[in-house]
Here is the input.
Amino acid sequence: MLEVRDLRVGYGAAPALWDVNINVAGGELVCVVGPNGAGKTTLINALAGLNRATSGSIRLGGQDITRLASHLFCQAGIAIVPESRRLFTSMTVMENLELGSFLPGPRSHRARTLEQVCTLFPPVREKLNMPAGSLSGGQQQMVAIGRALMAQPKLLLLDEPSLGLAPSIVMDMFDAIRRINADGLSVLLVEQNVSMAMNLASRAYVLEEGRIVMEGDAKDLLQSPEVQKAYLGLD
Amino acid sequence: MTLPSLNLLAQSILSGIFLGGMYGLIGLGLGLSWGLLRQINLAHFGYVFLSGYLCYQMTQYWGMDPLLALLILPPIFFGIGVVQQWALARFRITPFNSLLVTFGLTVMIESLIQWIWTADFRKMQTHYNELKFSVGGIFVPIPELFTLLLAVGLAFAIWAAMRFTDLGKAMRAMAEDAPIAAAFGINERGLSLLLSGLCVALAAVAGICFAVIFTLTPTQIFSWVGVVFAAVMLGGLGSALGPLVAGIIIGVSEAIAMVLFAPSWAPIVSFSLLIMMLLFRPGRA
Here is the structure.
């Protein structure tokens, strides 16, 4: 599904990402974890066309999308739930969801996808005509995920969906991500919440200072001494 | 201060509404470009006058009807708007710099007009000039009424398009967060060209109405900047209906001030309104 080869973002002596290699197979849920400033958001934004790759390649379902214009990544099959959500706050929830399905393909299935989003996130149905900016953080996160689902992507990118949310809402959010993936959608999740992300994902990558330093089965990585020590504070 | 007759007051208020419609029509494209493209397009005023002079040329020398000009000029000016946006985007002009660049462009348009049509006053003579009817002793000139109805119609059409069509929603989304809009397939460059073309086409429409109603002279270009800016800022940047509503409020306030005090008081009114709004509702513009 997604093949990232030797991806480098940024210039000069200290690029934000150094020759990153990542794979996501069809239907897989993969997470990238790492500390603040490791380059997680840079990575996910590059995959969504928000940042440009300096070198390397991004292939999605066999198509090389590295040099596509920003607005063509969505058409290629990528949808992003960006860091801190970035909803169109002055517009209604409904308008946000409609904009997710702006392209002709998803637009023709708009009613059906909207129904799926409302089934997945019942609170969203109640708020369709409210300005998106008036919603609580958790509800806004639901709308942000809903907006991405409205694009009917092949690969869903999630950037820190737990950021700034109460623990109980984080559990709901991860449960929703699990169900989205169970329906067959490939998911790449970037998270600081290492144990939750690794419990959810089948495979995981650890990103530090712009490089992938560990990768493998998520459950195995979670048990490894390095991860236990560096990220979970256990000896 | 002497109290004017009721009839005079009503006639003045009506003129104020018509003048406000003109402010709103000129402000419509200016405010859309300001709010949605983040460009303060001073050249908008130049385009209004250029369109007015072209309409003058077409009617006085080529024997065309102003309504025909209304069909011909806006598409041409749409093209000018597309080219201008392409150039501004090509050279990555920031919003503040767009003010300077388009100021220069306006000066160039003014010179061009002066070169072709000289600095003389030009008044279009058409059979529309004399068309008017009277209701209860109040005269209603047809060209002014037509301009007002056109302004209302266009403002409502654009408001509805912004609110109810996917393209309009995409433009609002682009204005709020262009990179995220692009991530959902919205082509920022294409939409910006379209929007800029639309705004300049609206300037052309305003210019034709202007030429029918007012006397043209190139130095007048800058005298409209202040009051139309006030209407746009009062009405809200990027709003389709706001500038028209604010324009009519300003026009009527000016008319009342002229009748009650003196004509020289009129310009003070619009800016007093603007300053009051900025004081009491800051952050709205």
Remarks:
- The first strand of chain A starts at residue 2 and ends at 9.
- Residues 104 and 227 of chain A are 44 Å apart (CA to CA).
- The mean pLDDT of chain A is 93.
